[in-house]
Amino acid sequence: ILLWGAPRDFRIDKGSAAILTAENKVDRRLLPPKKILGKNSKSLVERRQKDLEQYLQTLLVQFPQATPPALSCFLHLQLYEVNGVTAALAEDLFHKGEQLLEAGQVFTLRPLQLYSVTQQLRLATPTCFTGDAKTDLGHILDFTCRLKYLKISGAQGPVGSSNIQENSLPFDLSIFKSLLQIEITECSSQQISGLSSLRQTLATMSVHHSTDSMQLVLVPEASEFPQWEPEGAVSSCPVTAVIPVWKSLTTLDLSHNDISAVDSSVKLIPKVEFLDLSHNQLSSVENLQHLYSLVHVDLSYNLLCSLDAAHTRLGNIKTLGLSGNQLSSLQGLCKLYSLVNLDLSHNQLTQLEEIRNIGSLPCLEKLNLSDNPMCIIPDYRTKVLAQFGDRAAEVCLDGKTTTEKELDTVEVLKAIQKAKDMKDQKRTIHSFTQRKPGQE
C-alpha cells in the first residue's frame, strides 16, 4: 500500500477494532490493552503510542492488497493515500459522472486527486484493487476523456491533518482529451505535465499563483529543446524543434503570478483575443506584436513606468488596463487609435498636459484616471474633458457620464484656449516680421 501523510494524533476506537476482529479475522490480542484508569503518565502514553503504531503496521502487512473498509476509513485513506483517493473519486464519478457531463458544469479536482490518478496509472496493479466495481479506475478515465470544463484548485500548506504539501505534487493532464476550459490555482507549473496535449481543443486557460514564466505554461517542452520555432514559422536559423501552436486558445488569463517578462512563447498563441497579465512583475512589455487577434489586454498592477510606442506592441486593441502601475507619462499611448476603454487609475499622473496624448484618440469612450495625483487639481474633470475637444460629450470619465454643466464649462475652456492659441500665433508672426535682414 502507498501510505504517505497519514493523519496525525490518531486513536484506535473500539468499534473499528471489533469490526476487524469479527469480519477480517484479526487476532484481538494484537490490540494493546487499555491503560489503567487514572494513570496518564508521559511514559505510559509514549509506550501506548508505540504499541498502537505497531498494531497499525501489523494490520497493513496483513492486508497488502485491499485494506478492509473499517481500517481504510479509520486511517482516512480516501483522503490521503493513492489507492484510497482514486477509489473514492471513481465511486463518486460512478454515481454522478454522467449527470455532471450532461449538465456541462465546471468540475473541480485537487492536485492530490490528479497526482493519485497519475501514480496509479504507473503502477503494475489492477484498476480495481478493492474488488468493488464501483471503484474501478476506468470510471475516472471515461469521465476525464469527455470532460470539457475543469478547475484544479490547490492550496498552500499541508492537506488536512497530513504532511502532504499539495502545491508541490506532480500530475499529468494528458488524460483529458476534450477540454475547452481549464483553471489552475496554487499548483507549481514545473510539476504539471501533459499541458501540451490540450493544444488542439482548449479555448480558455487561466493559471493563478502557479508560475513565474509564461514559457513554462505555453511551451513546457522548452526545457528539452533550447532552440524551437512555432509551427508554420519561417526561420533562417537551424532549430531543434518545431512546436505546435495552441489552435483554439482565444482567452489566456495569467494574472496573480510572478511573471517578469512577456517572452517569445506568445508566438504559440496567435488566436488569443483576451490576455490578462495583471498582478505580476512586468516592468516592460515585449513580443505582444505577434498577437494579431488581440482585443483586450490587462496589464494592471505590474511595475510599468512607461509604455513607449505602445501601438507597435499592442496593435489594434480596444481595451487596455494599466491601473496600479507607476506611469507618469502617456506619450507612448498617442497612436492607439482603436482604443475604446482605457484604465489608468492608481498611477503617478500629475500633469494635465499628459491627457493631450490621448485626447485625440478617435474611439476612446471610457477613461479612468481616478486615484492619480492630478485628481486633486481644481476643476479636474472639466479640464480633462476639454482635452477631447468636440468629443468631450462622448467620453465617460472615472465611471461618470459627462453632464450638461460640465460641457458648458468645457466650451468656455475651449474658447479661452482658442484665444490663447491665436494670441500666441500673432506673437510668433510679429516676432518673425521684426527680424532684421540676415537674421535666422
From TrEMBL:
InterPro entries for this protein: Leu-rich_rpt, Leu-rich_rpt_4, Leu-rich_rpt_typical-subtyp, LRR_dom_sf, PX_dom, PX_dom_sf
Cellular-component GO terms for this entry: cytoplasm
Q: Please name one Pfam family that this protein belongs to.
A: PX
Highest taxon of the lineage? Eukaryota
Task: State the name under which the record lists this protein.
Answer: Nischarin
PANTHER family documented for this protein: NISCHARIN, NISCHARIN RELATED
GO molecular function term, any single one: phosphatidylinositol binding
SUPFAM superfamilies noted in UniProt: Outer arm dynein light chain 1, PX domain
